[in-house]
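Suppose you are handed a protein chain with no further information: no name, no annotation, nothing but its sequence. What can you learn? This example shows the usual starting point.
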Amino acid sequence: MLRIDGKNIGFAREGIQILSDVNFSVKSGQILWIRGDNGTGKTTLLRIIAGVLKTFSGSISFYSQEEARNNELKDIYNEEGKQHDKTLNTERIEKKENLARNHTEVENKSVKQSEYTHCPYKIVNNQSLGDTHNKLKTANVAESALCNKAKHDEKRETKKFMGTGVGENFTQKIQPHSEITYIGEKLACDEERTVLENLYFWANLRDRTHLLQATLEFFDLTKISNIEVRKLSSGWKKRVSLSKLLLFNSKIWILDEPFIHLDKKSIKLFTELFDLRLARNGIILLVHHNELDIDDKKITGLELG
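A reasonable first move is to predict its three-dimensional structure. Written in structure tokens, the prediction is:
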């Protein structure tokens, strides 16, 4: 179980105040839905939470279950000021955690049974992933260096990120570079390469090649896997970009307008994926202008501006 807290967040650019005194809290199984007019700092806030923007006031804290529990007890004790109240609330919290733990154990068993077990080198449209690897290697030797550099940069950025308002206990439990997937407005695809080559490159960044086949099938990308991204429609490009959600399989998703260019069928597909992520104790933070077809009880709203 995780929790993310933002306290008194402020951000200014060239003397213009973009964000001021923004506060939020979101925990496992919830969506933080960020809304507001243009120019109110929605994208800026996502970039701060993702660790892309490092110069800001206030704090962003990531807590594991135990640390979140300790902080909740601390808050209760400070507010009530009585030891017996703390004891009563401790029992209440422990009861909830036991129920959650039992649910998680059942859930984990079902996850293991339903996990994809496809061989990552299965043939896709007469092109295996092994062929793709060799093609990338021979077509551009620098690709391998780029991949290694990306891994190195992620580790380096993680160290910087850890020093920017991230709870210490978080570093012991999960690593931000592997447990956060941030997808901004830009597609971040190499449009000169095929869909499969892009996915293979992303998978290598986080050692997720074993999830390639499952990702291709879930998002119905197999039929276009050998097509260069530049030849796809805007909707399919967006679907390729969002496929990183399943490919990276991280606990925290940070998404900026994820449904732009998607048709109703695709939106339904990703909404189902959101529900699945939340059911498995993930956290989703997103900017989105239209209504969400998700249980209101799972949504925490944040209005900017």
